[in-house]
Amino acid sequence: MLSHKVSESMFWLRDDRLAALVSSHFRLNHHDEVCFRICPVDEVVCRQSTMGSTLITVINYSGAVILVLAVLENLLVMVVLAATSHLRIKYFAFVFSLALADLAFSVMAIVYALNRARFLSALLQSSFFVSVLMILAVAVNRYLALTITPPSRYDALVTRCRLVVVCLLLWCFSLALHLPVVLVASDEVRLILSAWSRSMLVLAVWIVTAVLYRFVFRKIKSYVPPLASSPGLSIPDDSEQAATRVRQTRRLLVTFSIILVTSFICWIPFNVGQIMEYFIKTGQSTISDDTFNNYNWVCGFIYCLSPAINPLIYWWRLDGFRQGFKELFCRCLLQNQEQLVETVDGNENQQNTESTHWIKNDNK
């Protein structure tokens, strides 16, 4: 009871010497002394606040490391896909686009951590939504690959230029969805759109994507290669090409299904945080600001894990990517070794020439 009264009175003390005297009398450390002077509650709350600050600091440094790794990983994915000849095909087009979206997200997250401008926030969320749309586009593309027969007809309809146009349209759609909300709308409208309209739209895209993936997997399971009697088909070529396309589709969809699940897990806490922010700012929730800020930091860290995880999934699931990575960097190592061998051989030849010339001079 006495300590409680002293703690209450210490909150109102402004004389540092008196505070130090009382704190030494009650055997308090420096942290407790500061808490008694500046905190309107008891010592436990102050220590909890310090623990929260420590958690935020750890999350800050961990998030910075994760984002830098995500930038390097996605740059590496794009270099491998662009520099390897057998990977520059339509099969890996959306993998390249997803890596580009993850790279943009990681860069925007780093820039946003330094300058919390609304424009950068819109670009950050646009990049993530583009990655969600890319996962949906993969399912649509693979469905068309299985539905349009013969395979040569699919190759004629789905060209590389059209895939590039589709990727650009997805970027434009995502930017058009996020930028006006940030640049034009008022704070109240932006809060409502962020918590409900935009979140529900992204959730709807997730649900449609999951349903479409399920539908394509069922189509793969019941797929029968086209018969030789079908017009324009030949037995060895088109049947083998169709079977290869089914195997590629199954493997690619399994890969992107894993990406779908991990991205959704990383996104859902952030979405819940936006809904919580709406209830807090409208006075419909009793959650404290400190609790919400700590939750927000944790959600932001989880939100940034997705672009760092995706390249690891490519390495694990896509044999062509692993092969291209080994060919690219093994080729660089071999070239360096060949240059080193040529340099050593050249030095040895030069030494032999000099020694021969010296022996001839001796003989003379």
Automatic annotation (TrEMBL):
Its main location: membrane. GO terms for molecular function: G protein-coupled receptor activity. SUPFAM superfamilies: Family A G protein-coupled receptor-like (SSF81321). Residues 345-364 are annotated as: Disordered. The chain crosses the membrane at residues 61-84, 91-113, 119-140, 161-183, 195-216, 252-270, 295-316. GO terms for cellular component: plasma membrane. Residues 73-314 form the G-protein coupled receptors family 1 profile domain. It holds the Pfam family 7tm_1. Belongs to the G-protein coupled receptor 1 family. This is G-protein coupled receptors family 1 profile domain-containing protein. The lineage of its organism: Eukaryota, Metazoa, Echinodermata, Eleutherozoa, Asterozoa.
